[in-house]
Specification:
Distance between the termini: 40 Å
Radius of gyration: 34 Å
Strand order of the largest sheet: 9-10-14-13-12-15
Number of helices: 27
Number of strands: 35
Helix content: 25-40%
């Protein structure tokens, strides 16, 4: 039987059904080799030689492939049809090189996991594409050289910074610069005037003032309330009539099918799903055979798919929704060699209601893909756009009303794209009006005026038939409204708009968008709040540092140009080592220039650049850098021993004022209480202190004999002004002993931890409702809470398995366990979630082994059990290692793998850093 290798067991299982008994389908579980996370893995001094290492967990997968090849001489590499898939196939060839002598090795690709696509692919085998592999090697080397050389500079020169990446840092710069634009934005006031018109037939509609005094109004022409008042009076004092009515037909064509970036954007807009979650759901749909390959920058569709879509449209919606000729979309991919078909259903007749999956995220993504694909081949929507111009006889004022009516819904019957802003076309239908008709003013704005007025705003007495409040003016009859507006700053990025912007700039590629956006959040550089991306202080510090000392490498044009060079490599028109050499020559020089930098010099520079952000103007107009506590010290950016940065007074230690970079409201008031004496206990002062991490109480002072006097944080719910000695001592005397447990006599305690108030018995912790309960909870209630927590499988209490499945094929018991987020299967240190559609009692050993294997492949940290036997084997071969010292060094390469989480960030599925 021929041996077919794919990336994942789920994909292997689906493909095995189509190929039958003549093939053995195995999974490589992603990349089988990687660069060891340490210096020297890429050697610029020796023609960028790259030292690869087979991961310890990949050895068993390679062994399974080797064992299967003993009975057959054909190996078919069927990994994904992109650069990463090509690289995985190349790695397999290299890792199996000695075992493949005399064997037939070929490469096949398919864009969809369907029987037809797979069988067709098997008829057209080829060799691994050298150009695509070299493009992968170039990216991997570049990302390694940036990550393993620039990140250590950050660690040394900017305490608290975690890492930098070739694309990651440029993406972070986009978010930081947008935030600075928002902070520097000065809103501009302007007013608009609308009137409610009534036709002779009693129908009403709204019109906007567009001309006054015979002059066309621009956006800012009504600059204040006085201008708006004059405009309202001008409209109310004149008779109005219809000057013209113009109706024009219009069409709207459907959107192109999805590619990776547009799918991520739309899932974010419509479902609030992050790029990572979107790609994860799409990956599962692809592996199950429901959609085509989901990492693509192509929007063209196979001719047979186009025809099937037309047939599905005709069957479901009728012939009038099928255009006369198929719609063809031009592929935007710069490199045709890496271009793929769009993301589409493999079977257009499988509508979302027929999808056989229960995972909600997969259903949402499939629904989106199916609708977008079907809509892309439907008739255009047809509208009638109407514009009505209303004016006075003296031609001093003119108002405009617009509306549109859908005369044929076309593709809108199925799908309409979400928007990133609120700028939508006027969809109001206007009533029938005729040129020359006189119009009346109709009261309509009493509620709108009331909302603008608010509860506390005062309405002035009517003057010349006008009613006023600070944000609006209205005619006496409530038919004309002038409303105040202010220009708005640019919106913060969502994941959708960030991916869109990166795509516009040519930064990154489809396979990297999700991991890049996830990485900057995981590193604490950016936080996501209500679907918007906010830069954290450490993200600002890293960006300012890189912009000042490595400016070229965070420039958008430079990063996009490098992407173009890598595309040239994949097209075979550029030598990848030439790209590496040119990059390294300049980059190494930039690194050398920072070797003499002092931390104080770096902080002073960042302090200067970020001054408008960290020292905002004060209401009283005083110097924002003057310490609010001592009144004469200058505030400066400082670093802490534990890493990170904060603002502190230059008069330290005489003045101990400190605050975070982004000072919370009321920060100065809290600092004013720093050092307040609360009383004495055992002859020592008990004082209130305010530190970088919040207020606390302290007993005694720091001395050589007592470097760490007793301290306790003050709960956020407690008022600092009301804090007295009794409350301080309650905190300092924690944990509080409640009494011995009635079952074993071990002490039960209550205290306040990083996750809030709790009671504790041995290793079991149970939360308390409030801080006050820490000081009042009794024995009976504490025992009850602890018993409830133990019954739920809380920390320290061993949860009972729901079902014992037996021993894993590799040894060790497999169990079905209850979990906080749902049931899961457990084998040694690997835990895998059970799909929602599967009942825990129905789980089989075969299912559990598959889920555990998938989880182990995705989570390197969870693969510790497999390392135990490997360690013993290494020890057993110690004498042989002495005979071959060179191999001894290689054997130790597995050890640094444990540090992978702390190495510079990886930004695509292979660990390739961007």
């Amino acid at each position: 039987m021929a041996v077919v290798v794919v990336e994942s067991p789920a994909k292997a299982k689906t493909i095995n059904k189509y190929l039958g008994s003549d093939y053995t389908v195995l999974a490589s579980f992603g990349h089988v080799r990687d660069l060891p996370p340490k210096d020297g893995s890429v050697d610029p001094e020796h023609d960028f030689d790259m030292k690869w290492e087979v991961a310890s967990d990949s050895k068993k997968h390679i062994k399974a492939i080797t064992d299967a090849l003993k009975d057959d001489d054909t190996l078919i590499l069927a990994t994904d049809p992109d650069r990463e898939g090509e690289a995985i196939s190349w790695h397999l060839e290299q890792a199996l090189e000695k075992k493949l002598k005399g064997k037939n090795v070929s490469r096949v690709t398919f864009n969809a996991i369907t029987k037809t696509a797979i069988l067709e692919a098997m008829k057209s085998p080829r060799q691994v594409d050298t150009a695509l592999v070299e493009a992968y090697l170039a990216r991997r080397a570049l990302d390694y050289l940036v990550g393993f050389n620039l990140s250590p500079v950050l660690w040394r020169k900017l305490p608290g910074a975690k890492s930098a990446g070739r694309v990651q840092s440029v993406c972070l710069r986009l978010i930081v610069e947008r935030e600075m634009e928002i902070e520097a934005f000065n809103p501009r006031e302007y007013w608009s005037v609308v009137a409610q018109m009534e036709t002779p037939r009693g129908q009403t509609f709204e019109a906007r003032l567009t001309m006054m005094g015979g002059k066309k109004l621009d956006k800012y022409d009504l600059a204040n309330q006085t201008d708006a008042e004059m405009a309202v009076q001008a409209v109310s004092s004149r008779a109005l009539m219809v000057n013209s009515v113009e109706a024009k037909p219009a069409t709207r064509n459907p959107y192109a099918p999805f590619m990776t970036s547009t799918l991520q954007q739309e899932a974010s807009r419509k479902f609030g799903m992050g790029a990572k979650a979107t790609m994860s759901a799409a990956q599962r749909l692809y592996e199950a055979g429901y959609i085509t390959y989901m990492r693509t920058d192509g929007i063209d569709m196979a001719p047979e798919a186009v025809m099937q879509a037309r047939d599905a449209i005709k069957a479901k919606f009728g012939e009038k929704y099928v255009p006369k000729s198929p719609r063809m979309y031009k592929n935007k991919a710069k490199n045709a060699q890496e271009a793929h078909e769009c993301i589409r259903p493999t079977d257009m007749f499988v509508s979302p209601d027929k999808l056989k999956v229960s995972a909600d995220d997969q259903r949402k993504i499939y629904d989106l893909i199916w609708k977008r694909t079907i809509a892309s081949q439907m008739e255009a929507a047809r509208f009638e756009r109407t514009t009505v111009l209303i004016g006075s006889k003296d031609e001093q004022v003119e108002l405009r009303a617009t509306g549109s009516v859908v005369t044929f819904d076309g593709f809108l019957k199925v799908y309409d794209q979400g928007r990133d802003d609120d700028d939508d076309e006027d969809s109001n239908r206007l009533p029938q009006v005729m040129q020359g008709e006189a119009l009346k003013l109709a009261p309509a704005y009493e509620d709108a005026f009331g909302k603008a007025q608010g509860e506390d705003a005062l309405i002035e007495d009517e003057k010349a038939g006008i009613r006023r409040c600070p944000a609006a003016v209205m005619s006496e009859n409530a038919a004309i409204l002038g409303a105040q507006h202010h220009t708005q700053p640019p919106a913060r990025y969502t994941e959708a708009t960030l991916v869109k912007r990166m795509e516009e700039l040519g930064i990154g590629r489809p396979s990297t968008y999700a991991s890049i956006v996830t990485t900057i959040q995981d590193r604490g550089y950016v936080r996501k709040d209500k679907n918007r991306l906010f830069p954290e202080d450490k993200g600002r510090l890293v960006t300012v540092f890189l912009e000042n000392y490595f400016r070229r490498y965070v420039e958008y044009d430079f990063t996009a140009g490098l992407e173009d060079q890598l595309d040239d490599v994949s097209a075979g028109s550029r030598d990848y080592k030439e790209v590496l050499s040119r990059f390294w020559r300049d980059f190494s020089a930039a690194l050398a220039e920072t070797s003499e930098l002092r931390i104080t010099e770096v902080l002073d520079k960042i302090d200067e650049v970020l001054a408008p952000h960290i020292y905002p103007p004060r209401e009283d107009g005083s110097n924002p850098r003057i310490c609010p506590v001592c009144g004469n010290g200058q505030l400066h950016l400082k670093t802490a021993r534990s890493g990170g940065a904060f603002i502190g007074c230059g008069n330290y230690p005489e003045c101990r004022y400190t605050r975070p970079l982004s000072a919370p409201d009321g920060d100065d008031a809290a600092q004013a209480l720093d050092g307040k004496l609360l009383g004495y206990d055992e002859g020592m002062q008990v004082t209130l202190r305010v530190g970088r991490f919040g207020p606390y109480v302290q007993k005694g002072e720091v001395t050589e004999d007592v470097p760490k006097p007793p301290r306790a944080s003050i709960p956020k719910t407690w008022s600092l002004e009301d804090l007295d000695l009794d409350k301080a001592m309650l905190l300092l005397n924690l944990p509080r002993e409640i009494g011995p447990h009635p079952e074993d006599g071990e002490m039960i305690e209550s205290a306040i931890g990083r996750f809030g108030p709790y009671v504790k018995h041995l290793k079991t912790y149970a939360n308390l409702p409030s801080v006050e309960d820490v000081f009042t909870v009794g024995m009976n209630h504490a025992v009850e809470l602890l018993a409830q927590k133990a019954a739920r499988g809380g920390r320290g209490a061993a949860a009972k398995p729901l079902k014992e499945l037996g021993d894993h094929p590799d040894g060790g018991a497999v169990s079905v366990m209850p979990g906080r987020y749902g049931p899961y299967v457990k084998w040694e240190k690997v835990n895998a979630t059970i799909p929602k559609e599967v009942e825990p009692e129905q789980v089989t050993m075969e299912q559990a082994v598959e889920w555990l294997a998938e989880k182990a492949a995705k989570s390197p940290k969870k693969k510790a059990p497999a390392k135990k036997p490997a360690a013993k084997k290494t020890a057993a071969k110690k004498p042989a290692a002495k005979k071959a010292p060179a191999k001894k060094t290689t054997a130790k390469k597995a050890a640094p793998k444990k540090a992978t989480a702390k190495t510079p960030d990886t930004e695509d599925g292979s660990g390739a850093e961007e």
